[in-house]
Amino acid sequence: MRLLGTIAAIVLVLDQLSKWLVVQVLNLKALGWIDLWPPYLTFRMAWNQGVNFGLLAGSGDMVRWLLIGLALAISALVLWWVHSESDNRMAQISGGILIGGAIGNIIDRLIYGAVADFLNMSCCGLENPYVFNVADIAIFIGAVGLVIFTGGKGKRPPVKGKSGHKTP
């Protein structure tokens, strides 16, 4: 579980550092956008008070605290899940990535009242209207990793055949 904690801490620092650099140092909150490598990578400031794609945005302080509680509950569930797979290194890494991202977005909600999103990527003539952050990427990667790397280790119990003998 030490690995999970280390990975979570690294992801949390990367998330908060990226937000501080872009939002505060580059002053994205005042500029609104910065074209880095248009259209492939631009910074577009967005304060997400809701969940993915802005769902539940503008629903007030109760939703903010509900989302903080939900993120904490999911993080606790992931901790329990990974603990049950304690010898699974990839589960610990995936869980740490997810939890680090979740805590990063919780910190935003506590400090700003909303999640600071700023990454926007478009390609091939298609303009992506959505923005995200390092924590969002980490949550997605961690969740996919948990699905891929957990749950398949246990052996299935033998099945009895028609003759009554156990078959593998």
Explain this structure to me?
- It contains five helices and five strands.
- The chain is of the alpha+beta class and 168 residues long.
- It has one domain.
- Strand 1 and strand 2 form a beta hairpin.
- The mean pLDDT is 87.
- Biggest pleated sheet: 3 strands, antiparallel
Radius of gyration: 20 Å
Contiguous uncertain segments of 5+ residues: none
SS-based structural class? alpha+beta
- The number of E-state strands comes to 5
Number of helices: 5
Number of domains: 1
Instruction: State the order of secondary-structure elements, H for helix, E for strand.
Output: HHEEHHEHEE
User: What would the principal axes of the Cα set say about the shape?
Assistant: globular
Beta-strand content = 5-15%
Spatial arrangement of strands, main beta sheet: 1-2-3
* Portion of residues within helices: 40-55%
The mean pLDDT is 87
List strands and helices in order, with pairings.
Elements: H1 2-25, H2 28-31, E1 33-37, E2 41-48, H3 61-83, H4 89-112, E3 115-120, H5 134-149, E4 159-160, E5 166-167
Antiparallel strand pairs: 1-2, 2-3, 4-5
Helix pairs in contact: 1-4, 3-4, 4-5
